[in-house]
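agent> fetching stored inputs for the EPZ docking request
agent> found them:
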Amino acid sequence: MDKILVRGGHALKGKIPISGAKNSALTLLPCALLTDEPLTLRNLPRLADIDGFQHLLNQFGISTMIAGSRPEDFGRVMTLSATRLTSSVAPYELVRKMRASILVLGPMLARAGEATVSLPGGCAIGNRPIDLHLKALEAIGAEIEMTAGYVKAVAPKGRLTGGSYTFPVVSVGATENVVMAAVLANGTSDIKNAAREPEIVDLCNLLVAMGASIDGIGTSDLIIHGKDRLHGATYRVMSDRIEAGSYACAAAITGGDVELVGAKMSEMDATVKALRTAGVIVESTADGIRVTANGTLQALTLETAPYPGFATDMQAQFMAMLCMAEGASVLTETIFENRYMHVSELNRMGADVETKGRTAIVRGVEKLTGAPVMATDLRASMSLVIAGLVAEGETEVSRLYHLDRGYERLEEKLQLVGANIERVSAD
Ligand code: EPZ
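agent> prediction call returned; pasting tokens
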């Protein structure tokens, strides 16, 4: 099992290339199911979750070809061809390893008229039910049954009808599933209180490039006019706003000056606003975003919310940064019920964080001290690396499989800007 060793005390300076967005790629990949023509995705991040999804799609008989990338390149080009499907079942042994597998449900149902997907189960940050995915699909004509840990969805007469659904709460994945199902329905679908994350816009833009008809892209009211078929396309995955925000926190906590190449300010309003309120200088550049800090950080009051609110996926990274702020910060996690597992590990490094239910009080400290720490989930892992970049001494982060799910070649990117960080094999 690999570990990452970080030795703090270096202000990060230079340029970090931002990869394609994991949370966009994971919903663009299943779109290959929606056509029998080739779909080529560019700027795909080289991540464990992408490899896992590719393997799942192969199970359905989809061929996937990686092209045009040398080992030293960031990102990959993948061409997917779902000419003929050999299965419409997503098995437990694959789904349990990657809960985003649930995103094949909608497109498979639209393409094959039926889909059987293992229930994804919960994960470290919460039990993460899929009831909203199922209700939305039923609203556009699916018949759903649950048997032996699997969801079986069928489109009566082989094709979904379209329909209307208003989400009671915003759900990114459920919005993605119902949109991917609706584009081939025999009618129009009106989805209200839909998620507005940039990754949803990226999905809608790809579907339109494939011939879909969607009104209201970027708003919470999506109207999808179903088509008989979609065609192939070549599409570039958007840059990862969460990866960019994570490295912005790393630059801020070390008093650094880093350009995040490929990042888009327009997709990161809440993150940029929070950084600026903390006293960090954030500027647009020709190639991305420049983040400059002078070593002193102001405390913040932050509450996570669906886009365009402050992203839950940025909460752990900001908490690490705010451990070094002047004063007490108040963070409230409104999206997931258990997204504070990084707190105990940060406190072992000398942080002063106290949680009360959904709220965390982060009191700034003079210094953090390196320690052996354990990653528990993707963003928590990144918060420990961020803390390690400023801690005195060495921080050893284990259970790197969490990090490798969402950060492409993390240590290489941080080495580019002067961090003293390396990946070592534990054995
Ligand atoms: C997506 O997860 C992201 N994952 C998450 O990123 C992100 O934290 C989350 O959206 C919120 O922005 C991917 O895109 C692959 P939700 P998703 O459905 O779709 C509840 C990361 O670190 N809910 O918007 O699963 C749910 O329990 C990951 O990159 C239901 O109750 O999130 C949660 O409390 C972590 N029923 C809230 O809604 C449902 O059917 C928001 O979940 C679905 C969700």
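agent> quick read of the result: The chain has two domains: 2-18+239-425, 22-236.
agent> awaiting further instructions
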